Amino acid sequence: MSLLREANGPTTAVRREDYTAPAYWIDTVDLSFDLDPIKTRVLNKMRLRRNPDVAAQALRLDGEDLNLARVLVNGAGCSFKMDGNQLVLENLPLDDAPIDLEIFTTCAPEKNTQLMGLYVSQGTFFTQCEAEGFRRITYFLDRPDVMASYTVTLRADKKRYPVLLSNGNLVEEGTLPDGRHFAKWVDPHKKPCYLFALVAGELVAREQRITSRSGSEHLLQVYVRPGDMDKTEHAMNSLIASVVWDEARFGLPLDLERFMIVATADFNMGAMENKGLNIFNTKYVLANSATATDTDFANIESVVGHEYFHNWTGNRITCRDWFQLSLKEGLTVFRDQDFSMDLCAEPSARAVKRIEDVRVLRTAQFPEDAGPMAHPVRPDSYVEINNFYTVTIYEKGAEVVRMMQTLVGRTGFAAGMKLYFARHDGQAVTCDDFAQAMADANPLSDLARLLPQFKRWYSQAGTPHLRAEGVFDAAARSYTLTLTQRCDPSPGQPVKQPFVIPVALGLLDANGTELPLQLAHWSQPETGTRTFVLTEASESFTFVNLDSEPVPSLLRGFSAPVVLDVDYSDAQLLGLLAHDIDPFNRWEAGQRLALRRALQAIQAQGPVPNDPLDAAYLAAMQAVLHHPALDAAFKELVLTLPSETYIAEQLDVVDPQRIHAVREAMREQLAHALHSDWAWAFETHKNNGAYRPDPIGTGRRALAGMALTMLCLTARSSGDTVWPGKAYQRFKDAGNMTDRFNALSALVVSGQPLAQDALSRFHSMFRHEALVIDKWFALQASAPDRDGNVLPAVHQLLAHPDFNLRNPNRARSVIFSYCSANPGGFHRPDAAGYKFWSERVIELDGFNPQVAARLARALDRWKKLDEPYRSAAREAIARVAAKPDLSNDVREVVTRSLAD
Ligand code: PHE
Ligand code: ZN
Description:
The protein is α+β, with helices and mostly antiparallel strands. Helix 24 packs parallel to helix 26. The protein is built from 27 helices and 33 strands. Strand 7 and strand 8 form a beta hairpin.
């Protein structure tokens, strides 16, 4: 690969095996900011000492886009040089005495369009330092294993910036001449610089005082812009619930007197766990029933939880280097998933959450793991660390932690966490350290027994395939299940060793009744789900005392992040869908039935059939819809067909238009065949009383919304105007955003003539609500394509006065919705979608490389495409790659994409 970059010198990959400890430690940092959007002055006084474990050498401090004015060593001027972006001090005293280093720089927050470092959003100052943004604020050892104590003084105009926030405790504030004021903050905890934050602007806060189990008092604050106070209650409630949960589940209390969340409309990611001063994308803070959907409410709960849980997993114990990113992210995603599940009262709601999480894993992470950017949960190298905030690090990382819990049990997992903190609190450590603590706390567990092999989940990329084959021996009354694993090569890893795969399973008889499980050597049968641990390439398990051939229910609860290959008959799948005690596998059986029909129609010769679905499938869906014991949320999941992206992943050669046409045909048939059932479902789920974003209400609204879409789809072909009229009425009368948006979406998705009117009404109703306008853009950009109508609409949306490419949420709402979430609209035979993509990647890269590089990944799977798409996609990627001054971020993505 050639990754040379002229502008900022050569770009080289960073390798995990090259890690060395820092040559200096920074013990204290005293930062003073004179905040000004045009030119902010930063005085950085550090106390350093040499690391005695490392050979004496020059001090090399990272810096980026800074103007350096002064460097003092122990109060006196000194010689220094610049080496690329590094400030190099070669003549520091050689003794062990601490060194006082003073560095004075300026930067230009208003010109900071990357949103990394110190920037201005709607007149307010924010910082973003993870992963390597602190170097855009001052010269520093910008690496997570250098942990220091921070004192921060902020000075700014008092009228324009009345609120001045940083990490820790406010120790002093007061006025200054010329209408300025100051605030001084001291963080009681040592931290790596990526957790530094400051905020300065006109903000208001919702406040809540809480008392912990141990009796300590804390102040919780959610800061927003003045008009947004009425959208902060849910975030605050989520924060309180997070504090309570972490203390109850893991004995991890809030370790700060004050914990702040601040919302900004301009943010590259979801949110950031800066110590005591979380900074959030407004999307994951602001919600009330009039502006936010049930999905928004659920996302806020989990992101608030996620960032709060980082306070221990990430902040108290952090990463030694960025290759260990999943140490904090995988673990913290696992914790936020578990938290959201624990907030569900009903087991069925827990199952729904699990299904949703697995759906993300399978539609986003599995493709990543099979594509050009595939990397292990603990990568071995990167060019740009920003490109490694991936679904593999986060979601697959969480599955690896989940498997550990499966192998040691829930109590054992809590014991492992306890040992992890006993050993490593205050340290910067590795994924190995975490796994070792888990194993050592559970010495008799399968995890301890298999630890080196288990850790292949950290080192080997790619999604393993697990093949299951059963043979029933009537004479011996035994059933032998053979499990075989394989994992395809991924970039840089031609051969894979077997993984440790926990397989939770049960056996059902022909009536769907759960059978007792008894391996040949067991004296007693066991009832319920049992977890078997596969460690070899292939292993057989023989179950005895069986009167007839059982149906295996495998990988219950999705007990490992693998592709399960089993040759079920339709009858077996219908049985599992109807009877399995494991709700995940019930849903999975329905998905397999639908997928099978989709693949048949896709692979058949000739035109797309009108009726890809058969009577048995339709009857099964009808039974689920009317089932008296299943709840609405689960029904909605079962009745949702596998996505076009998921279907594409099952094929070696992908014709996106054929997939789109087949899936649309299936949906129309499901709508049409179950017409009266959908009408029943809508009528019985449409009224839900006062809005509460709880699982029951959420599920009922989701099913009502789905029913309405189905009814409008049928109306489109039948010419019926009654249901579109009802949808329009519901859109106008809705008492909450979920119902209103679902009704709007039903009209848009079904291509109803009323959609245009509803869209313009919606826009004028919410023109001042940026997050709602994002939804308005996204709905149109992700609408099902009909004869290529979406791209022209997308071009118009870009020309809309409310469109603003510089705001990441707005850019995502149009461009990502189209390029990444609308395969039928994007993969056009005339290649116009790819041309649009390449133009937007290049345009975005001019000012925000992180967002550009994410968009660049929309064509990751181009090699699977059928012609003419494949050649056109390659050309579009090559066009981007040919641009001479690309960012490292985009260059790394397109270079890997084009590599063989
Ligand atoms: N660490 C943040 C999180 O997981 C994500 C993030 C990464 C935010 C980089 C900003 C920049 O929650
Ligand atoms: Zn995180």
